[in-house]
Amino acid sequence: MTEEQTMRTLVGQAEGDDPVSALAALRALRAEIERQEAVQVRRARLRGVSWAGIATLLGVSRQAVHKKHGGSRLGRS
User: Fold this and answer.
1) Which one, of 9, 1, 3, lies nearest residue 26 by Cα?
2) Residue 47 burial (CB count, 10 A)
3) Roughly how many angstroms between the first and final C-alpha of the chain, as a whole number?
4) What pLDDT sits at residue 11?
5) How far, in Å, are 5, 27, 32, 43, 66 from residue 20 at the CA level?
6) How many C-beta neighbours within 10 Å does residue 62 have?
7) What Å distances lie between residue 26 and 6, 12, 58, 70, CA to CA?
8) pLDDT tens-digit series, residues 14-28
9) Do 61 and 55 contact (CB within 8 A), yes or no?
10) Cα torsion for 29, 32, 33, 37, to the nearest 10°?
């Protein structure tokens, strides 16, 4: 199963009638979203996007995104 198919399956389960399955699917979706966010933040930083720019896109403060994604490890612009 591809990553896209897995995500579609999880979304379907999250919208389902069984609350236990829905909660488990939401947990898995949250973990995948966090992973994808970290990947995209790294990509943005490598392409020179500022912490402030990333923060604006994510709807959080610069300090929050910097703390969450380990700003000092990824260099500064």
Assistant:
1) 9
2) 8
3) 39
4) 94
5) 21, 11, 19, 35, 34
6) 15
7) 13, 10, 20, 25
8) 999 999 999 999 999
9) yes
10) 180
Q: Find tokens 């970290």 and name the residue.
A: 38
Which residue blocks in 1-77 are alpha helix, DSSP H?
Answer: 3-14, 19-46, 51-58, 62-68
Q: What percent of the chain has pLDDT over 70?
A: 91
Residue-level pLDDT at 72 = 60
Residue 69 pLDDT > 90, yes or no?
yes
> For position 26, what pLDDT does the model report?
96
Q: How much is the pTM? A: 0.80
Alpha-carbon distance of 63 to 37, in angstroms, equals 16
R_g over Cα of the chain: 16
Structure-token pair, residue 23 = 């909660």
* The token pair that represents 15 in the structure block: 């919208």
